Amino acid sequence: MTPTRRSITLGASAAVIVGGFSMPAQAARPTVGKIRRLSPALDAVMTENTPIEQIADGFVWSEGPVWVKDGGYLVFSDVPANIMYRWTEKDGASVFLQPSGYDGPPTKIFRESGSNGLALDASGALLVCDHGNRAISKVDLTTRKKTILLDRYQGKRFNSPNDLAVARSGAIYFTDPPYGLEGLNASPVKEMAFNGVYLRRPDGSVAVLDDRLTFPNGLALTPDEKRLYVSVSDPDGPVIMVYDLGADGLPEKSSVFFDAMALHKAGGPGLPDGMCLDTDGRLYATGPGGVLVITPEGELIGVIETGRPVANCAFGEDGHTLFLTSDDILVRLRLKTTGLI
């Protein structure tokens, strides 16, 4: 079902200061949620009165944002609706690719058939976690032509690739839970015996990084690319794992970086999902309550709350804007820090 979209388009006038940075003044946008400060260390990132702007709404479940510098726009997914959207300051949100995932005849095998996590490769092409094709796909941003990059490991179809991170070498890390399949682990079309975290090397070869996680989900590389974070969206074990990577890109050791069970038990909406980092190595991880702001040492210093579960986040614009895909809405806020884009 295609959702009713109510994007908000605004005109610019004079300049105002938001989060310490100059931005064009605009007609008032609605704001949502609040910032919960848990440590004075959050003051280097944002203030408690930093506004969280709602910039588009009407989605079924928004996901996978990525900022496209060459063009100055955001692309993101509505996974159940099978639509990829494009958002700009001038035009708001508009359909960019439909269908974004499965484009075949009607079938009941999918729980969510659209695109999910997105990332750019070194050439500027869009890499897509393609639930409906159970693959990692590549989309030319100019022609919008899609090609399948990989859809199997050792001859077996992936479950439904969920999120990905691209290293400077061109290596691609991605997760493959069963969230796109009706019945999840019980789906009759599930071919993998596990829900894996994978590495696709620049030469095209694929290796399993971890086959023991119950529901691997979002992932992100640290600024030096020596560590990989992977979220586990299991209500019985909601954690963020960290992997110390060797020269070959595979883990030398792993451990639990952050345990979100206490937040989950407290009733915060959502589970560990997508994430991104700033240039100082702070992790912005979606989880119970909103976006958890976590230091490289694992200290939770604040939470960005939208009042809804947050699926994913990404930095964009000049690097000081954090975009959040949160259930049926798209929001943004200005930070003092610079994000990895």
Structure commentary:
The chain is mostly beta strands and 341 residues long. It has one domain: TolB, C-terminal domain (Neuraminidase, 6 Propeller). The protein has one helix spanning 261-265; strands at residues 12-18, 21-26, 34-37, 53-57, 62-68, 73-78, 83-88, 92-97, 115-120, 126-130, 135-139, 146-150, 152-153, 156-157, 164-166, 172-176, 196-200, 206-210, 216-221, 227-232, 239-245, 251-259, 275-277, 283-287, 290-294, 300-305, 312-316, 321-326, 329-334. The protein has a five-stranded antiparallel sheet with strand order 3-26-25-24-23, with no helix packed on it. The longest helix has 5 residues, at 261-265. It is globular, with a radius of gyration of 19 Å. The chain starts with 11 loop residues before the first strand and ends in a 7-residue tail after the last strand.
Mean pLDDT: 92
What's the count of strands?
29
The percent range for helix content is: under 10%
Q: How far is it from the N-terminal to the C-terminal residue, by CA?
A: 32 Å
Enter the CATH topology name. Answer: Neuraminidase
Structural class category: mainly beta
- Which CATH architecture would you pick? 6 Propeller
What is the number of independent domains? Answer: 1
Low-pLDDT stretches are 1-26
CATH class bucket: Mainly Beta
Rg over CA atoms:
19 Å
Helix tally equals 1
Order of secondary-structure elements: EEEEEEEEEEEEEEEEEEEEEEHEEEEEEE
Main beta sheet: strand number and arrangement?
5 strands, antiparallel
